[in-house]
Design goal:
By secondary structure, the protein is α/β, with parallel strands linked by helices. The chain is built from nine helices and twelve strands. It folds into two domains: 179 residues, no CATH class; 84 residues, Cation efflux protein, cytoplasmic domain (Alpha-Beta Plaits). The strands form three sheets. It has a six-stranded mixed sheet with strand order 4-3-2-5-1-6, sandwiched between helices. A three-stranded antiparallel sheet has the order 7-9-8. It is elongated.
């Protein structure tokens, strides 16, 4: 029965880095009747990330490999706990080589791999070359879950949605899947940081364009977590006499959150606005 107390068949999907494995992962799993995928440090089922942290969040390529192999004991136990609870009949592991998927299966306590699908079995040379070009020239990686499922974990990173529609032939239901493209910062531009001044300038600009707001009196920005995965914002505002305070502040808050998340890709974890005064001058 193995480590998890139930029989679970282990499949592997293997191909060199950047050839489109994550792009095709759900398609391969769907054709094999597999509902669970291990990809790049994540345990995925359908449109949901069940456990793990994407290896693409690691600050270096070496740490990316360590995370993808589940050499971190805490991450490994997190994955194992979900597997024990969910009891999947089968699972698909993605990797760049036979040795890599074997090590992932071994580190997580899975049964030995019983069947391996190679990227060359499901993609043409031209399709793989296109994927390689996207990886090399643009630094883009695909994660096989919708962008909304990753937004919280990838605050500060650049995410783009991707929808796949593939016909299976006349009379057959098409394959439709939502995925996300992520551009990890280390892969093409090194580490980057966003200054508090940037947030303050965005806030000032939005306030200037919001009816009823006279000016921003004070702004405090606090970044959260070791990897700055979100920001807390505190604002003191002077409003214009004659405007409804609650409505004006709600409008200001919504606009600021929208602009900061759009322009910086950072999550606004919490935002407090205090009205410090009223301007009565016309």
């Amino acid at each position: 029965m193995g480590f998890f107390g139930h029989k679970m068949k282990t499949y592997a999907f293997v191909g060199p880095s950047g050839t489109g494995k994550s792009y095709r992962a759900q398609m391969v799993a769907n054709e094999k009747g597999i509902n669970y995928i291990i990809d790049d440090g994540l345990l995925i089922s359908g449109n949901e990330v069940l456990a793990g942290i994407s290896a693409k969040k690691a600050p270096t390529k070496i740490e990316t490999v360590r995370n993808a192999l589940f050499q971190n004991e805490e991450r490994k136990k997190e994955i194992q706990a979900v597997i024990k609870k969910r009891k999947p009949e089968s699972i698909l592991i993605l990797g760049t080589s036979d040795e890599m998927v074997r090590r992932i299966a071994e580190n997580l306590g899975f049964e030995p791999i019983s069947e391996t699908i190679y990227i060359t079995d499901v993609a043409t040379e031209a399709e793989m070359e296109m994927a390689r070009n996207m990886r090399v020239t643009q630094g883009k990686h695909v994660i096989p879950v919708p962008t909304f499922a990753l937004k919280k974990d990838f605050s500060g990173y650049l995410l783009d949605p991707l929808q796949i529609f593939k016909s299976k032939g006349k009379g057959k239901a098409p394959y439709i899947s939502e995925k996300s493209i992520i551009r990890p910062t280390f892969s093409y531009m090194g580490n980057f940081q966003i200054s508090d001044t940037v947030f303050k300038q965005i806030i000032d600009y939005v306030a200037e364009k919001t009816d009823g707001v006279y000016k921003i009196h004070r702004t405090i920005i606090k970044k959260h977590g070791e990897q700055n995965d979100g920001v807390y914002i505190y604002i003191e505002v002077i409003i214009q006499f004659g405007f409804n305070i609650n409505d004006t502040m709600q409008a200001l808050k919504a606009k600021i959150i929208k602009e900061i998340e759009k322009m910086t890709a950072m999550n606004v974890l919490n935002m407090d606005i205090v009205v410090k005064g009223v301007n009565v001058e016309k």
